[in-house]
Amino acid sequence: MYLLLEAAAAGKSFPTYFVLVYVVGFIAAVSIGSIAWYNSRRPPGWENAEKPDFVPEMDLEKQKSDKKSE
Predict the structure, then answer these.
(1) Given 3-state DSSP classes, what are the helix, strand and coil percentages for the chain, each rounded to the nearest 5?
(2) Is residue 49 a contact partner of residue 42, using CB atoms and an 8 Å limit?
(3) For residue 15, what are the CA distances in angstroms to 11, 20, 23?
(4) So what's the pLDDT on residue 26?
(5) Strand segments (E) across the chain
């Protein structure tokens, strides 16, 4: 804690590219997580919920048959 206060008092600014990396990473994680959640099985009460248009359709039966044939 003392180190943070000393750094702030010295007038050094925090590099903006660190903040940019965290912001871009957070947006990417939320986007990828949302797509994965929408493509997963629906929790109780959400069975009839519609997917947003930006979420790609996935054919799970085709994926299962492709894995069995390998």
Answers:
(1) 60, 0, 40
(2) yes
(3) 12, 9, 13
(4) 97
(5) none
